[in-house]
Write a structure and sequence with these properties.
The complex is a heterodimer of chains A (155) and B (282).
Chain A (H helix, E strand, L loop, with lengths): L1 H22 L14 E4 L11 H11 L10 E9 L10 E6 L9 H13 L6 E2 L5 E13 L2 E6 L1
Parallel strand pairs in A: 1-5
Antiparallel strand pairs in A: 2-3, 2-5, 4-5, 5-6
Chain B lengths: L1 H19 L12 H13 L14 H11 L4 H13 L3 H14 L1 H15 L3 H14 L4 E2 L2 E2 H12 L2 H16 L9 H13 L3 H14 L4 H13 L3 H16 L20 H8 L2
Antiparallel strand pairs in B: 1-2
Classes of the chains: A alpha+beta (155), B mainly alpha (282).
Chain lengths: 155, 282
């Protein structure tokens, strides 16, 4: 048992080390030249959007007040990168599930409205290395939907 | 993707070779808890958890898969594999894996899923259902420094079912103090009971609990903020500004609600400098 585990681990580490080297995925140590390359996640840099969920929801209600005849319950998540200038980069990944966390597709109008709202947020924290140099990080924003209405914003 | 596949392929190959080799090897006894624990110890404690960047390392999932490849009934490996997805907002993956952990070991993982639904995905009804089931399995259970009643109370409060929330917050406090009014419970039990009464517009009760909270944890940003809101309701502008200044200074100096998962998700009623600045505006 111990021998097979050791052999297995050895091969796993050997192959995955090569993989890691190839992908060059590392923790932030050196200053980075690329302002849009994420080196961390929002939670490692105290990077939740600096407003309470309730305040964000109030702000959204103004934008989303025109949405009618939208149905469905679940979650719409936008994942993106906050660059070294504290701006959302262009590409947003969109994940959608129903309320039981199974794949789902909401009305495109709702998705587009929420996407525009996320892109309008402009108070993201800027993450910095110990030497003060800014760097990009990954973040996300999820909208909890009940019967077509946004009832909560996560995180 | 190709790299992942080759790792899995190699691992399968090794297992096949081990099984066919002349040297006898112990067969995987996946029904044995100690055996499964030894796999977790080997691949997770001494492997995944020692990776640079821990669960943010791309290899984290591979270590979990190594356990699952040998024993697909190891609940802990599913729960651990879900962590990066959960903290990255991929709830489909996170809950598929956590559901599997719950299916395998409800006694150990049902309360954790209930917690995730309460704090991470704000699925308050789902969380209450899970916590009440968990309570049947472990009547005096708790997690993340709190009783199940604390979280059930939070969920009811967020659903606007204030009487139910009150019942569960009282239960949570009694569990901690044994009914002795001189004993102080966890500061966040006091804070959330205060917040509940604030939302019920029972300001004198709210004030009492929030003051008890700052008596234990003076810089509690939210307790000071809601005390300011009550002072505002009472028309005491000077007191309101005093509490808001304390809250603002506390946040700027890094004081928080002090809950384990606060960096990943906002807790109910959590505030930021933005709300304080708004409240300070004339």
């Amino acid at each position: 048992m111990n021998r097979s585990i050791s052999t297995l681990t050895f091969f796993l580490l050997l192959t995955s080390a090569a993989w890691s080297q190839e992908k060059n995925v590392n923790s932030p140590v050196e200053p980075i030249p690329n302002c849009d390359t994420a080196y961390s996640w929002y939670y490692s840099v105290d990077g939740k959007y600096p407003m309470a969920s309730e305040s964000l929801l109030n702000q959204l209600s103004v934008t989303a007040s025109n949405l009618k005849n939208v149905r469905g319950s679940g979650y719409i998540t936008f994942r993106f990168i906050i660059n070294c200038r504290g701006q959302i980069t262009k590409d947003l990944e969109i994940l959608q599930t129903d309320s039981t966390y199974k794949k789902f597709r909401f009305d495109q109008t709702l998705v587009d409205t929420l996407k525009a709202f996320v892109k309008s947020l402009d108070k993201w924290n800027i993450a910095t290395f110990e030497n003060g140099k800014p760097f990009a990080y990954r973040a996300f924003m999820t909208f909890k939907i009940n019967d077509g209405k946004v009832v909560n914003i996560i995180p | 993707m190709m790299e992942k596949l080759s790792i899995l392929f190699l691992s399968c190959l090794i297992i096949s070779f081990s099984a066919c080799s002349q040297n006898p090897v112990t067969t995987a006894d996946c029904s044995n808890n100690h055996y499964r624990d030894s796999l977790v110890e080997h691949y997770i404690r001494n492997g995944a958890e020692k990776l640079p960047d821990s669960y943010n390392n791309p290899r984290w999932g591979l270590y979990c898969d190594s356990v699952l490849m040998v024993c697909p009934n190891t609940a802990e490996a599913y729960q651990l594999k879900a962590i990066p997805s959960l903290k990255g907002g991929d709830y489909e993956t996170a809950f598929r894996l956590n559901d599997k952990a719950v299916e395998l070991e409800p006694r150990n993982y049902l309360d954790y899923r209930a917690f995730l639904k309460c704090i991470f995905t704000k699925d308050y009804n789902g969380s209450i259902t899970d916590f009440k089931e968990a309570e049947k399995l472990s009547p005096k259970g708790g997690l993340m420094d709190h009783s199940y009643s604390f979280f059930i109370g939070l969920c009811y409060m967020e659903l606007g079912r204030y009487q139910d929330a009150e019942e569960y917050f009282k239960k949570d406090i009694t569990m901690q103090t044994g009914g002795d009014s001189l004993q102080l419970p966890h500061f966040n039990s006091l804070f959330y009971t205060g917040l509940l009464y604030y939302r019920m517009s029972q300001f004198s009760k709210a004030k009492k609990y929030l003051e008890d909270c700052v008596g234990v944890y003076e810089q509690h940003p939210e307790a000071n903020y809601y005390l300011a809101m009550i002072a505002g309701q009472e028309g005491n502008k000077a007191q309101k500004i005093r509490y808001l200044d304390i809250a603002k200074k506390a946040l700027r100096n890094g004081y928080r609600l002090n809950e384990d998962n606060i960096y990943y998700a906002n807790y109910p009623g959590q505030i930021t400098i933005h709300e304080i600045s708004n409240a300070l505006q004339p």
